[in-house]
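Supplementary Methods. Inverse-folding protocol.

Structures were first reduced to a discrete structure-token string of length 263. This string, shown here, constituted the complete conditioning input.
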């Protein structure tokens, strides 16, 4: 029996009955989405509901932070002023995420994991940020989570799953720039025999170099069952990540209606 964690991305939202079906399929952790805006903690009922449903079924819970809505609010307020944007985004990120996680902790549904995408700043139009500024804004989010929920593990997610040089460079720069401690690197990936070896190399190198556990996230892929690399192959690659740092795989809720997880 595999010891890998099996997460399912339910960003679009599902009910408790569906979560129970996923649990019987072998899923052990639910990944849901938190759309961060000013005042998110005051309208967090739907976020709390997912956490409560997961907890009642004995499932773990990972909360993905979608901070782009907050950054869009800041952009409207300050315009193309990099310096002011960084200040307000840093402050707004900390305050809103801290209030949200404090509320979650108060209701007894603290997430086990929090996920932050590393590419978020490249998606902001018309502004270019130095790496020190990017690190400041990411640190604000991590600090906010840890201040309210110290046991919550931090996942940094990257699309550079098969590009070791690019991924290594980003995480090196993050550390050199004073980046806060993180626990897990998530590699967003589409199953393909052409890139599978590169994925394996990347997992091994990143886990050793940054002393982090590794997730492989295939939840963005459609038609997983027709890929030329199977789920058993992916499991095997994650299981042999050095020092038992292969944590597991993230699946799509929709795709789990079509594929069977490996025992």
């Amino acid at each position: 029996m595999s010891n890998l964690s099996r997460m399912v991305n339910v960003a679009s939202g599902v009910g408790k009955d569906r979560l129970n079906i996923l649990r019987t399929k072998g899923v052990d952790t639910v990944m849901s989405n938190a759309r961060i805006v000013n005042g998110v903690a005051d309208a967090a009922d739907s976020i709390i509901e997912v956490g409560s449903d997961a907890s009642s079924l004995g499932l773990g819970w990972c909360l993905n932070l979608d901070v782009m809505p907050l950054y869009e609010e800041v952009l409207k307020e300050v315009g193309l002023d990099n310096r002011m944007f960084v200040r307000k985004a840093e402050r707004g990120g900390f305050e809103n995420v801290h209030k949200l996680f404090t509320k979650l902790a108060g209701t007894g549904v603290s997430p086990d994991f929090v996920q932050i995408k590393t590419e978020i700043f490249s998606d902001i139009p018309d502004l270019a940020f130095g790496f020190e500024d990017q690190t400041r804004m990411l640190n604000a989010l991590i600090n906010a989570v840890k201040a309210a929920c110290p046991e919550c593990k931090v996942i940094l997610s990257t699309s550079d799953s098969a590009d070791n040089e690019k991924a290594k460079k980003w995480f090196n720069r993050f550390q050199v720039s004073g980046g806060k401690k993180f626990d897990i690197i998530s590699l967003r990936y589409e199953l393909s025999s052409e890139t599978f070896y590169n994925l394996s190399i990347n997992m091994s190198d990143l886990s050793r170099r940054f002393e982090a556990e590794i997730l492989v996230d295939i939840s963005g892929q459609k038609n997983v069952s027709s890929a030329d690399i199977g789920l058993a192959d992916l499991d095997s690659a994650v299981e042999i990540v050095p020092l038992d740092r292969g944590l597991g795989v993230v699946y799509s809720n929709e795709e789990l209606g079509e594929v069977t997880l490996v025992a």
